[in-house]
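Dear support,

I submitted the protein below through the web form. The confirmation email said the job was done, but the results page showed an empty box. After a refresh the structure appeared. I'm attaching both so you can tell me whether what I see now is the final result or a partial one.
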Amino acid sequence: MNIAQIFKNNHDWVQEKLNLDKNYFKNLSKGQNPDILYIGCSDSRVSAEELMGIAPGEAFIHRNIANMVPNTDLSSMSVIDYAVFHLKVNHIVVCGHYYCGGVKAAMQSKDLGILNPWLRNIRDVYRTHRFELNAITNEDERYKRLVELNVQEQCINVIKTAEVQRAYRSRGLTVHGWVFDIHSGNLIDLKIDFPKVLENVMEIYRLK
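What the results page shows now:
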């Protein structure tokens, strides 16, 4: 990649925006008021704003390997706290994608060094759903199903947080689980039953 070309692209992009609206960046600098917190994968093929068809300022974005939300990860917990308490988002989306390298790596019995603790979270998802997954004989389909189940489990991790439970009670915040089909470009709604999941989670993780 030609780094100089990136700055040329940036210059062209600035001019394009100013040609449409001379106050574009002035207005952009006034602050943000997104309605969505999007938690997705760092995969270079998955551009959050582009796949949702939204403009800068419409979603608060957090990305990491395999769209994980471990409760021990200060980064994702801080993002949720800031998005819910300060930005007052009304929707949190966890979006995975088929053919995710992180999920694929977690399916392998292989020592991956520093990645081991992170991928262990996905292996825990496999362990939790191993009977369903082991019953899928087609490896490609098993891989895709683990992507879906990982999104589901990360949604549960989001719902466990105090910030989300309080925001649900105070303003009806909702949590969604999506998968981006990288072969077709389509977004798939896993239709997470948020109230039901919340009810089950709060049996143990309820906050007074």
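Response: this is the final, complete result; the empty box was a page-load delay. The two ends are 53 Å apart (CA to CA).
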